[in-house]
Each structure stands twice: as structure tokens, then as C-alpha cells.
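During the second year of the project, the team shifted from modelling isolated chains to modelling whole assemblies. The rationale, set out in the original proposal, was that interfaces cannot be judged from single-chain predictions alone. As a representative example for this report, we include one of the complexes processed in the last quarter. Its constituent sequences, exactly as entered into the pipeline, are reproduced here:
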Amino acid sequence: MGRYVARRLLQMIPVFIGSTLLIFCMMYALPGDPVAALYGEKKPDPAQILAIKHQLGLDLPLWHQYWNYLTGLFQGDFGTQIATQRPVADVIAQAFPVTIRLTLFAFVFTVVVGVLLGLVSGLFADKAFDRIVLVFTLLLISVPSFVLGYLFQYLFAFQLDWLTPTVQDSRDPGQLLLPAIVLAALSLAYVTRLTRTSVAENLRADYIRTAVAKGLPRRRVVGVHLLRNSLIPVVTFLGTDIGALMAGAVVTEGIFNVHGVGNTIFEALNRREGSTVVGIATLIVIVYLVASLLVDLLYAVLDPRIRYD
Amino acid sequence: MTETLNVPASASMEPQPAPPGADAKPAKGRSLWSDAWHDLRRNPLFLISAVLIVVLLAMVAFPGWFTSASPTVGDLTHHYQGKPNYGHFFAEDWFGYDTQGRSVWARMVHGARASVLVGVLVTLFVTILGGLVGLVAGYFGGWLDSVLSRITDIFQGIPFLLGAMVVLTTFTKSNLWVVIAALLFLGWTQIARVARGSVITVKQSDYVQAAKSLGASTVRIMFRHIVPNALAPVVVVATTALGGYIAAEATLSYLGIGLAAPTVSWGVDVSNGKDALRTAPHILISPAVMVSLTVLAFIMLGDAVRNALDPKSR
Amino acid sequence: MRGAKTMKWSTLAAAVALAATACGGSGGDGDSASGKPAGYVSMFNGEPQHPLLPSNTNEKFGGYVIDALFTGLVGYDAKGGLIDMNAASVDTKDNKTWTVKLRKGWKFHDGTDVTAESYVKAWNWMANVKNKQANSYWFDDIEGYKDVHPEKGEPKKDEMSGLKVVDDHTFTIELSKPVPYFEYKLGYKTFTPLPESFYKDPKGFGQKPVGNGPYRFQKWTHNKLIQVEAVSGYKGSNKAKNKGIQFKNYSNLESAYQDALSGNLDLVDGVGPKDLPKRKADFGDRALDVPYAGTQSIVPVFYSKPFKDVDPKVIQGLSMAIDRKTITKTVLQGTRIPSKGFTPPQVKGYQKLDTDVLSYNPKKAKQYIKEGGGIPGNKIWIQYNADGGHKEWVTAVCNSITKATGVTCVGDSKPDFQTDLQARQNNKVKGMYRGGWLADYPLNVNFMQDLYKTGASTNYGRFSDKKVDELFEKGDHAGSLDASVKDYQKAEKELLKKMPAIPLWDYAANIVHGEDIDGVKVGFDGNVLVTDITVK
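Output from the structure prediction step:
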């Protein structure tokens, strides 16, 4: 087990290199030029563009730029933003905590509400409650998050005046509630559907019948045997979801004026700030790696037959 | 009917499902199919979804049957004045006019083609690609699993916006296929993970172990025993994601990199409609309802077919 | 089962570790600045894209702050006329040598005097290619610019020979050739003085600037707000009527609008499309539309298939096929004013053109296009950036053209401005592109020279016409400002015949503000004059 974790941690190195390289190449492939972008719609100055590019090493071949970036990274240097001239590490350090709070909020909401709804509708599969939950989750899925965001803002902040329309202080949980729910909506639908199907399916499994036949109390059957065995696909999904929540908040963060990772990536992309985008994306890859390790470990907890070798 | 069946259930129909335990005899396989069909015909869920899907496919193939109004040419005099007339069935102003003075109903009908194609094709490709990766990784484990899983990690780390922009700007023309490619590029990892997790669980089952010890070939074990039993979560995520992809196409349009002008799609309309959210919400709600109905139809169909085919359910 | 139990513990530990790292970061957020001091005005803004230096700020968000912190030699009045600010006078006899006399007693916010040296030394630094300032090209009229800013390689000198300090409050500017409208250019925000403290730490200065303007810099919490405080001893005519400004950082107009509506924000100088139709209902007479010197056009590129060697008559026809009045009223919600020429009314040199080329006339449009020989392929494209909210009107313009003339017109969406710009710079536009121009200084010259002169760097349509170039040239060599403006007016009439662009409409600033403030006015550049705002 210890060796397994150690091996997985070692695997992070090639993944780290691979993902930075891939995202580096993707940034390179985008049309547009971060230095020319400094001039906006105004007259660009070719002499100055060349000078700035030379200073930043942007005139080097791609592999060389990547090498410079990587060696910098290993010395703890995430690079400097071209336009604002702020260290990328600062920018990231400012954005990540906000997003992490938002993500955790959304994540807890997804897990608690999603599993609960899924469990109940799975237990009563094909009954009225199940149908209502199905339609509800469908609405969440088929309405894009920007529509949901504007709708919730309008409804809860203006018509009902329960919550603030935008986030003024990201440390106030009350203000984060609305964006967190919008962010969680899509995952909530998946988790509910997955739990429901798993539960409904496992209800018919032999071991449940055995457990019921043995005369175990219903609460124990559901809580221990049924839920535990139904959670593998849900846990798998949640593992990928936590990364997606962190990275995919561009739209939601924009609507609620949250200055987190999504917004930062959006702005950096617009200005073609390569080092910022690569830095953030790399951190998100690390989140994915840790999450998928946790998920793999959880498999063994949920299903003792699964072993690592 | 087979036409409607093929689309959503293709993933579950390809491999012949087998009951756990001993190998299914060929004769029993046939009766499984006819049993399933027998079940389905009596299932109201299935009937509703089948009707919905037939209507949708008719819209995709023959939009002219439903409306004669043009989805692209508008008249600005209708701008914001075009409130819906819900009594005027199939008329130009049934669902009012949009901000450009175009018939919303015409756009709902003509938008079906692009949206349904995006939804169905992306789901199909994502399920095949992601399912295969997950199957191989989960079944073989070891270094193959490590490599495939880490590649999945890398792809998941790509920011949605960056990935979509790179794909869509690389293929300068933003047509339907490029949007499908972009969503496939960004979407396959989710299914791959779910499939892998599911395969890992099924792999431990007694019947798989039994088949192994009986000396069944790898391919046989994979497709006879693993796939049918590991399919449930994959189908759930895939059918649920179908709506997600249609919505994702809308998000791409919202971010300005989705389908371009002459193409009509629900996603484009939902994203256009947000500007009129406070004054003329029908512009947004009408295409959004179409998306919901489509997803509902496919999920119900997926559920019904899976239940009918699931050997454990009888 | 023992194995499974240890597994449980390690999983839990790992989960705790993940959560701990997640929460550990919350200290460095810098999020606590939501309070507003009494008498201050809070307004919508965004994160400046560059450090706060006058010579490096060329976008709106940073521009607001720079304008509040610095005052240059001259400014403009509401009609585009010049007024002296820090300068007591700016004189010239030959349009080549300009003598600047400064007002006495002006101080930087660190207490040091504003002298001729403060200007000359600053301009030499700003123009120097080594310092890589985005606005350095503004100094290229000055004699010796090439020495400090060569097209290639290191600068030969540190100082421009054209700048000479006469005494503490007088300096002269010698240009490499006469520019009759140079004084107008002097109003641009890069022509400001810098205090001596700047040169010790230019990088630190960009985060904490010290200016000579109506406001003093207080704090900059990145991604959150920039706060400036009114200077009590300020000597300029634009002394602040409020106690200070909070420039709050918003990622979009919609969320700022929501905050203004709920009373958390005093002023937003833009309204998103979602709220435009409701702005009067929401804010009543606190929703203002103030026209300013910015124009929108569609620009044919003359290397493209549809417009190569095109007869200008065809473009005139296309122009007449656009129903500007209806589109501005409906799709654009009355936020734009149909163009009456190539220059907007807020600038000096605006003239009423006697023409029907800019009015909707489908019949004539069709006829003109036919007479001009039509368009190859009968299809045109309008390229635009999807991140700027242009899609709706491009669609409407295309619809109008197609309906009136039968020419197929399709919007060509580029994901963002960078992609759009790159296509323009590399001559990859398929037919037309969306052109927008905001005045740098309120003079008709500014709306023509950079856009339509042969080889001008922002002339992405690659328009080239001998007669137009001649008239521009004549204007640039005119004996006086007025003569120069007149020559450019002639050029504008010529442009109407050659059609290097199809003017569509002029901008208006859409402003909504709260009940607590008053006196909201807008400058020629569409920016709110923050010093004039009063707090109730």
C-alpha cells in the first residue's frame, strides 16, 4: 500500500512534464501575440516588440522557451506576467484560495444533496418522487450554467432579496452560496443520477437480499451495505469533478464577480499570458492527480476485494 | 422503430449482454432480445420517449414539415414586440420573435439538426473512446492502467476554454464537426474514468474469476462479462451528458467560439437569448425547453432499454 | 479485513491533508476591502493591464486611474477645444518649435515641485526604447526621437535633442517637422511629468504612483480595488468636488449593474445587453446616455476577394443598404447614434456632410452595387471579435444588407480580440472587419490619419488613395491649426467618394448611478469626469 502510493506519487513527475508541455504547446498554437497585445488597438511598435520578446526569451524556439520555463519552475519561479509585470506566483496565490473555497462549498453541496436525492429516488425507483427528481436534474443539466447563473441572481437576489447578487468578500460564506449552487448544479445532476441507478441496481443484488433475509435492520442494510456498494461510480465521478469544478468556473465566476482561477485564466487567455495559463493549469492537473489517487484508494475501502499490486 | 432504438442504445447493444455466472447459450440470447422487446412495448416511459425522439428526428430530417418561416431572415419591426401567441399552433409567431425579429418557432425547428447531431454524435464518440480507454485500463491494470490514467489526468487538466479555443482556432472554420471534435477532445476523460472504475469493480466478481479459471479468452471475458455488467454507470453518465453537450455547445457560443452564424442551433439561441432575459424571456426559454425535452427523451429511453436488457432485473 | 482498515486511515489522512492545504491558503487573499470612506465615490472599473505609468497605460481601466492621479499641460473642453491645465501657455510661431510655460506653485503629491525638468526628464525616459513603454510612439514628432528610439538596436543617446529646459518653469519642444495640431496631441495622458523619486524605483512606482493630479494614490488591492484621495491643495481647474474615488474591480458590467441597483456601488459607466432595455425602468433619470467621440464602422479590406479593385460605388451601395436608424433603435437599444460622417460631432473639425450615402435607401443601394459591377461571388463577410458584444449588431447589419441588395452577408466570428487583431495584421480578413475608433484627442485628424493614410499601421483595410494622401499631407503641413483642420475636412469629403470604410454609428456612454451622487459628466473619450461628481 505504501509502495503503491509512492509509485503513484512518482508518476506525477512525467504527468507534470507532459501536461505543462501540452498546455505550453497549446498556448503557442493560439493565434495572437502577448507582446503585441500590450498595444491593444493602438499602433504597435515593432522595435519595442522585438526588444520585449528578446528580454522575455519569447524569440527563442519553442523547446528552448519550454526548457527555460521548466527550469524556472524547479527554482520556484512561475514567471512574470507580461502586461502587469506581476509575478505569476502572486497572481495564482491570490486567485486559488478564492476558488478553493468556492469549490469546497460547491463540492460539499453536490455530495450531500446529490447522494441524498439519489439514494431516496433509487430506493423508490420509478415512483413519483423518482420522476420528479429526474425532471429536476434534467432541467439542471440542459440549462447552461450562464442561464442558471443569471436566473438565480435575478430570483434570489432581486425578487426575494435573500442573498447578495455578487460576491464582495469571498470569505463570507453567505455571499458564496449562490455561485456555489450554480457551480454545483451540473455535478449535482450527475451525482444524483449515478447514485440513483447504482442504488436501484444494487437493491436487486444477492447480498442485499441476503442481508434482508438475515433480518438486519433496514437502516443498516441501506446505510452500510447498499450505500457502500453503490458509491464506487459516484466516487469516481466526484474525483474528476473536483478538478472540473476548480477549472470550469469561468462562466460562474464572471457572473458573480468572483476573482478566482476561472476569471484569472479567462483574462490571461485573452492577453495570451502563457506562463499564467500554464501555471494554473499545472496546478489543476496536480489536483486531478491527487484526487484520482484518493479515488483509487477509496475503491479499496468501498470494496475490500479490490487490491493494489 | 429500430431506427430510433439504434441511436441511444447503440452503446449497450453492441456487445451481447450475458447473465452473470455461466455463459449464455445462443438460444437464450435470442429470447433475451425478444423478452426485452416484449417488455419495452408495455413500458409507458419507453413509448413516450420513442414518440418524442421520432418527432425530433423528423425535425432534424424535414424541418419544412413543421414550419415555413425562415430561421435566418428577420424583420426588425418584430423586435421585442413579438410576444408569443401560444394559441397559434405551428404559426410563425407561435413562440414569438427573437431580438433580430426572427421566428422563434422556426429557429427551434431548424436548430434541432445541429443540436441533436452535436448531442448524439459527441455522446456516441465519447462513449466509444472513453469506454475503450476505461475498459483497457481497468481490466489490465498495471503499467497500462498507469499510462492511460495519467494521460487522462493530463487531458483533464486542460482548461475547457483553452482546449476549445485551440481546437476551434486550429480548424479556422467553426462548423459542426469542429465543435463535435472539440467536445470530444475535452469530454472523453470523464467516461474513461467512470468506465475504469466500473470495470475494476466488475473484474472482482465471481463470475469473471470463474470464466478466467475456465480459460476463457481475454476478449471473450471483456466483451461477454465485463462490458455488459460494467455498462450501467457509463450509460447513465453518457445519457446525462448528452444534454450536457448540447448545453456545452451553448456555452461555447456564449464564449464566442461555438457554431457560427448561418448555422442555427439551440445552443446559439440560448446564448443569444440571455441578452433578452429580462425583457423577453421566451427567447431563451423556448430553445432551452427543447434541449430539456431532448435530454429527457434520451435518458428515459436509455433507462427503459437498459432495464429491459438487464439480466438482473428479471 | 485488516488491510481494508489501514487503508481507511490512510485515505482519511490524505483527505485531511488535501483539505488542510485548501484552507491554508485563505490568509493571502486580501479580500477585506469592502468599506468605503465617507464622501468617496465608488465606481465600476477593472484591473489595469499594466503598471500605473502614464506612458504605459493605453486601456480604459488604467486610464481612469492615471487621469485621476496626473495632470498634463493641456486638456479639452466639452466641445473639443483646448484648455491650459498645468501649462500657463503653449506657444508657437512656426508649428515646429513650441514654448511651454508652466503654472507656478504646482506640487507632486510627495511635496516636490513640478518643474520644466520634471517634464523633460520624464519624456526622455518614456521615449527611450530601453524602457519599453507602450505609449513611446507619441513622442515621435520630437526632434531626436530616433536617437533614443531607433528602429533597431540600442539607443544612441539618452535625451531627445528637441527638448530644452529654459528655466524652472519654461521649456521648449522642437519637432522634426512642423505639426500644426501638436498642441492637441499634448493633451494625451502620456505627456505628463514624473517626480524625481520615480527614477529610483520605476517598478515600485508602477504599483504606487506619485502624480501631480487632483487625486493622490492611496492603495491598490489587486483584483479588488484602487483607491485615490482628493488633494486639498490642488491648483488645477479640475479640483475634485468629492473626497476620493474607489475604482472597484469587476469582471463584467452585469455584476456591477446588479451592485449599483442594490446600492453597493455608486456608478457604472456601461450597461450590459441584458439590462439595456430595463435601465430607464431601474434607474429612471439616473440612467444617462451621453454621446462621445467614438465611432463604429465596417471596413472593407482591399486585398480580399470581394473588394479587390472594387468600384467605390459598390461600397456606397452597401452603406445605403444598412438601416442604421432601425438597428440603433432596436438591436442596440438606443445606445448608438447613426453616423453622419467619418468623424463624430464631439471633435473639432466635425462638419455636416451633404450626402445620402449614409442613409438607408434599399433601391439606390441595389442600383449602386449593380452599376459598380457587383461583388465577386455575391458574398461578403464581416469579421468581429466574439468577446466584445458585437454579434447582435453584425447579424442585424448583415440581415439588412442581404434583404436590401441580395448580397449574402455572413458574420465571421473570431473568439477574441487577439485573434481578430492578428487576422487584420496578417492580411487574413475575408471581406470586411469591424472597426472601432476612440479618439485619442478630439480633432478630426485623429479619425482619419491613422486609419486611412497609405501604409499607416492601423490601416488594416490597406486602403491607399493618392488624392486622399495628398490632402492629408497638405493638412500636416498647413500653417495653422485651423488651416490643417480645413484640409482634413476636405479629405473627409474625398473619403466619402472613395469609401475606405462604412461608418455606422457613434458611441454614447451608458451610465447608471446611485442616488447618493450627482454631477455625472462625460469627457470626449467617453470617460466619466470623476472630479465633477458630488456626493450628497
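Residues 129 and 262 of chain A are 36 Å apart (CA to CA). DSSP finds twelve helices and no strands in chain A.
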